[in-house]
Amino acid sequence: MRARSSQALKVVAIAPPAPRRDLSGIVRVLTCGSVDDGKSTLIGRLLWDASDLFDDQREALRRSDKRVLNGEHLDYSLLVDGLIAEREQGITIDIAWRTFDTADRRFVIIDSPGHEQYTRNMASGASQADVAVMLIDARAGIKRQTRRHAAILDLFGVRHVVLAINKMDLADWSEAKFRSIEKDFEALKKRFGFVDTAVIPVSAVTGDNIARQSERMRWYRGPSLLDYLSQIPEKAAPKAGAFRMPVQTVLRDGQDFRGLAGTISSGVITVGDRIVDAVGKTEARVKRIATMDGDLPSARRGQAIALVLDRDIDVSRGAVLSAPNAAATAARRIEGSLVWVSEQPFDPGARYLLRTATDLVPVSHLGIRSLLDLETLERTSAPSCAMNDIAVVAIDLVRPTSLDVFTATQETGAFLLVDAISGATVAGGVVAALHATSLTDARATGATIFTLTRALLNHGLCADLAGKSDADAELRRRGDEVVTLLKSAGVTARLDID
């Protein structure tokens, strides 16, 4: 066991470091579920039973005066809940990240909040997860929030899902209760595209079926939670998928060096390969693959590089370099699904920007086609959406940008919607279909002009100016700045506040 001490400095013999273990891969595990279902306690128990916590961490928890079950068990949630507000309220507010190793795997635990108010945090965690653990209280069963979380997991491409039926100790370890919930989940999962699922009865406070098999539920013959997570396959091999590299910047040394810098989001690139910019439709051959540690003969997903080409092409930040035989789409119209995360509902009169990996594109039209009914899980026609709604949308862009369908290439098939005035993120979504022509083009209605009015400014950016003596002059100054920024992003804009 490792130990840390705050005592006075003293000379000690230091043992050589243990040899590095060969881990078979990193698995990112998202925990989600309704508030008070025990997510933080479950992860804390997993860390307590399966990881190499420091001795003083264990001792600090033992000395804590916060206990559960009338003092019978430690409050393992204290190992996870990091914010003071979380500890005071007894809920998870922000996403908490924890990493631990077993004999052959490394796990990154993403503990997401369960309260409906923080659904956007859960959606953020889902976008980075390989597997999700959905917790429910054995006494309550599947809730509306469970169905919302399942829909978000499906939306963001999480295909491995385990339903952990927690607090079985408070349900008298009932097999009948477990089987009833298991049946409900079987019906629920048929609505989504999950590849692999499991239903495990657990008790986070007692440790039953967390890192070890339960002696109290011998009627359950499946794996413990840790056993299930250990068999999750590593995410797609780094070389899998077509080559994609969103360009972050263009590097120059003041002489002859010109490198297109970015991080490879999928596939492999090798010196001599040809690449293409889908929007500009220009091709070139890779002459060098430069890094801070020297040139490479090839590079793969996750590596930050600078590509030096055999000829200059008009490429800058926002472009996506692709393999010519499997290029991204230069899209003006997107069909997809999104989660609305803003407290402000969708406003047809507002202006939005679409953010991709490295691009920011003005939206000329955003149409809400339908919403997911979380009771029936059916799509219902709707003209608008509000916070936490899951919607099917159609988005027209002012100019083309490089995108992929999410199911084909996740890294370049996801997007954010941003309020053009405040800069706040209002939604996160995925691409289902792409078109080179926007609805505006098809109707030949001409260029979209963004008119920045006094009402629009007072609604957001200038809401703080009410009652101030110089309000009009400051509103005009801010409006002029916004017009300048929008024009630099390719939007035809004008200020109309008279």
Q: Class of the largest domain in CATH?
A: Alpha Beta
Structural class: alpha+beta
Uncertain segments: 1-23, 83-93, 442-447
Q: Compute the number of strand runs.
A: 25
CATH homology-level superfamily of the largest domain: P-loop containing nucleotide triphosphate hydrolases
Average pLDDT over all residues: 83
- Taking the alpha carbons of the first and last residues, their distance comes to 72 Å
> How many separate structural domains?
4
CATH architecture of the largest domain: 3-Layer(aba) Sandwich
Strand order of the largest sheet: 4-5-1-6-7-8
> What overall geometry do the principal axes of the alpha carbons give?
globular
Number of helices: 10
Largest sheet composition: 6 strands, mixed
Tell me the strand percentage band.
25-35%
State the helical fraction: 10-25%
Written overview of the protein:
The chain has ten helices and 25 strands. By secondary structure, it is an alpha+beta fold. The chain folds into four domains: 26-230, Rossmann fold, CATH 3.40.50; 244-325, Beta Barrel (Elongation Factor Tu (Ef-tu), domain 3), CATH 2.40.30; 329-446, Beta Barrel (Elongation Factor Tu (Ef-tu), domain 3); 448-498, no CATH class. The strands form six sheets. The protein has a six-stranded mixed β-sheet, with helices on both faces. Strands 9-10-15-13-12-16 form a six-stranded antiparallel barrel. Strand 18 (352-355) and strand 19 (360-372) form a beta hairpin. The chain is globular, with a radius of gyration of 26 Å.
